[in-house]
Amino acid sequence: MALRSGLRLWLSRNVVLGSLAVSLALNAWILSSTLLPQQAGDPTCETQRDTLIESMKILNNRLIRQDGKDKTMAPALKEKPPTSADCSVTPASCSRPGIVDTEATRVLGKPRRTKGFLSIGIPTVKRNKYSNYLDTSLNSLIEHTSEVDRQQVTVVIFLADFDIDYNKRLSLEISQNYSQYLNSGFMQVVQAPKSFYPKLDGLKRNFNDTQERVKWRSKQCVDFAFLFSFCRGLSDYYLQLEDDVVSSENYLSAIRDFIYAQTSIWTMLEFSELGFIGKLFKSPDLQRLADFIMMFYQEMPVDYLIRYYVLLMHQQGTFIHLPSLFQHIGKHSSLSGKEQNLVDPFFVDAMKRKYNDSDNPSAVVSTNIPIFRQFKPQLAYGPMLGYFWAQAPMAGQAFFILFEDAARISRIVIETGSEEHSKDILENGTVEASPRLVSVNELDNTPYCTDYVKFGDFENGRFEMVTTGEGLGSFEVKCLKVTVKKDQQMWMLVREIAVWTIK
């Protein structure tokens, strides 16, 4: 349900974005400011910065009010409008140090002479209870990146801990264990000078966070900004990962295909549902993004800041690849005492087929039930990994399997719900088969078939039937129809449709 609430929130964000376009546009010039040290106490700089922060706060407050009826924000916009004194001048003092010297900060690895396709940034720090996540993450990338593809990918490991001795030990371990990949240019190890970091102690406590947590998340923001700046010229695209994440097989080809499939202007593509994992940017945008993060590093967590940045860059909506290509495996956070069990329910491994021996003859799966995001009916049946996920179905609605050629069926299994969404089952449904297609609805691509024969009913969200050659197995099926028999409040997730045929 949290995911659905998030969807509604983002739909609301798109609706109200227009009402704030003027305010944000008047302040967005800050993103392009030059990179010189900030001069403490510059009143013009502070005014400009505060104006943009206020605009961001107003935006956030409006977005979380989904009824759209609250009018208390209107006066807030008038209290402190941007003025010419705030916006007409771009003083150098309003930016923070951010351009990274790549040669001076590289600890291990050989830079490539030519720009690659993708750079992958991985910051790593010491953890109190378990420190082998990094090896698991790196080995996963190595295993799932072919030798040819490694020539177009650079994995940048950022030693982000302030413990110099720990960084030296980790650097030595990486050098010993991954020398082949360091020498080939597939991996680089970097470290930021302490002077890159602004003040981290005594920062204001937003979100009612403790001082310890404020320092931790503010440092994380600066860590990411460093990586953005370092990787700005390494490749065409940049992917953000963490040191406790594993990749899927063929992740690189999936990323490439998703990039080339885009027809709209985008700033960020997402390959994981979780936090700041699996977020991809165009490399020419990295320095600007680093500047933005550095300017507001103490205000909020980086995954919040990124959302504001994307809005300022006029990206309309989100671009999420499903299934997810990266999975979070860490249990022990880098924040002392914090444990987390964050798992991406849409990771590709969670969507693997259970019935790999099924025939699933060529067919089109369609429905007249409202579909959730990209979880289309075909995903539950076809070769692509995924599942069909629909909003609360109503009695009479259905989904259909229209076979390209009529088939004699020996077995059918349809399973709904999943481990993560165990209640999203088809509560009351029936399965019917038809030998005759009359027409196809042009609006939703659902077939109209006649002479249906009932195969059976769902029990506990599952349907299975085995036929014989003498019975229904001699019946050539053109259409399968699964009909919802009763309204239900819960959504419906069809995990797999498996069909076996008589040879």
Task: Throw out a few tags for this protein.
alpha+beta, 503 residues, seven-stranded mixed β-sheet, disordered N terminus, eight-stranded antiparallel β-sheet
SSE diagram, text form:
Blueprint: H1 2-16, H2 21-27, H3 43-64, H4 73-79, H5 84-87, H6 102-105, E1 106-108, E2 116-124, H7 133-143, E3 153-159, H8 164-177, H9 179-184, E4 187-190, H10 211-230, E5 235-240, E6 245-247, H11 251-261, E7 268-270, E8 279-282, H12 286-295, H13 302-312, E9 326-328, E10 363-367, E11 388-390, E12 398-416, E13 429-434, E14 436-440, E15 447-450, E16 453-457, E17 462-466, E18 476-484, E19 492-501
Parallel strand pairs: 2-3, 2-5, 3-4
Antiparallel strand pairs: 1-4, 5-8, 6-9, 7-8, 10-12, 11-19, 12-17, 12-18, 12-19, 13-16, 13-18, 14-15
Structural description of this entry:
- The chain is α+β, with helices and mostly antiparallel strands.
- The chain contains 13 helices and 19 strands.
- The strands form four sheets. Strands 10, 11, 12, 13, 16, 17, 18 and 19 form an eight-stranded antiparallel β-sheet that branches.
- β2, α7 and β3 form a beta-alpha-beta unit.
- The radius of gyration is 27 Å and the shape is elongated.
- The relative contact order is 0.10.
How would you briefly describe this protein structure?
With 503 residues, this protein is of the alpha+beta class. The protein has 13 helices and 19 strands.
